[in-house]
Structures are given as C-alpha cells and as structure tokens.
Design goal:
With 161 residues, this protein is mainly beta. The protein is built from two helices and eleven strands.
Length: 161
C-alpha cells in the first residue's frame, strides 16, 4: 500500500544528499494558523517548540501519552485541532504514541529525507506543526502506524456520561 502525499504548502529551502536534516519553511497563507517563531515560543514549552516547529523528535518512552489508553481525543499541542481518537490508538512497542488512523481532515503528509532515509512526515493540517511520521507496518484495518511525538499532542478525556 502506498502513502499519498498531499500538497501542503511546505517547501524545502535546501536539500543536500549528505545532510542530516532538511530545512523547511511555510508561507504565511499555507496554514489556517500562522505565527512568527516568537509567537510560537510564547505559547509552547521548549520541548513542544523543538518538535512542532523545528521537526524534532522526543526520546522514545518519555511521553506519558504512550501508555495512555483512556477514552478521549488527542489534539495538536500547538492549535488544539483534534487529530486522533483513542479508539485508533494501539501499543506499537516503539515508545511513542501510535495510532492506525487520524481523524478526517486532521493531518497532512510531506516527504522527509533527513537522516539518509525517506520517510513520510505527519503534520497538523491547521498549524503545520510536526507531529511525527507514518509507516506501513501498522495493524488492520489500515496497515499504517502513525508514530507521534507525545509532546506534540494534548489528551482531552471523553466526558463522563
């Protein structure tokens, strides 16, 4: 099964085969929510800023959301757009929160050629925040594993009743 990569407004500013990272930028109109780096730094923790705005990765096993299986919704830590339902969460054994499917119209994908490999990067479709990557080794029904950085997410418990 191939992954479709949507046009999202991200464009590489440079790419060299032997570099470890690919720098990306976005145009002001590429996403519904656009802020300056200074504005993002005011509302995000340093760890959230590193992952969401600089395409960082948190250390495996450090997010309490990895082992959270309570009913609810996972939203973007940058703009609070609902991204994933707890109903699609599974234990991948990777140390990162993993889901087999995002909510409709929640995420976008781009090609990530950092670290001498090609992966499919997942970002919030509303603010462009880097969430993680998607791989084709997940469970049914999709066969996909959305491997997300917990620091890029907030969990909203399902209301009792």
């Amino acid at each position: 099964m191939g992954l479709a990569v949507a046009a999202t407004g991200w464009r590489p500013t440079h790419s060299h085969a032997n570099e470890e990272t690919v720098t990306t930028t976005k145009t002001k109109s590429a996403f519904e929510i656009a802020k300056t780096p200074e504005e993002w730094r005011r509302i995000l923790t340093p760890e959230q800023y590193h992952v969401l705005r600089e395409h960082g990765t948190e250390r495996a096993g450090t997010s309490p959301l990895d082992k959270n299986y309570k009913p609810g919704t996972y939203v973007c830590a940058g703009c609070e757009l609902p991204l994933f339902s707890s109903e699609t969460k599974f234990n991948s054994g990777t140390g990162w929160p993993s889901f087999y499917q995002p909510l409709d119209n929640a995420v976008g994908n781009t090609i990530d050629k950092s670290f001498f490999m090609t992966r499919t990067e997942v970002h919030c479709r509303r603010c462009g925040g880097h969430l993680g990557h998607v791989f084709e080794d997940g469970p049914p029904p999709t066969g996909l594993r959305y491997c997300m950085n917990g620091v890029a997410l907030k969990f909203i418990p399902k209301a009792a009743g």
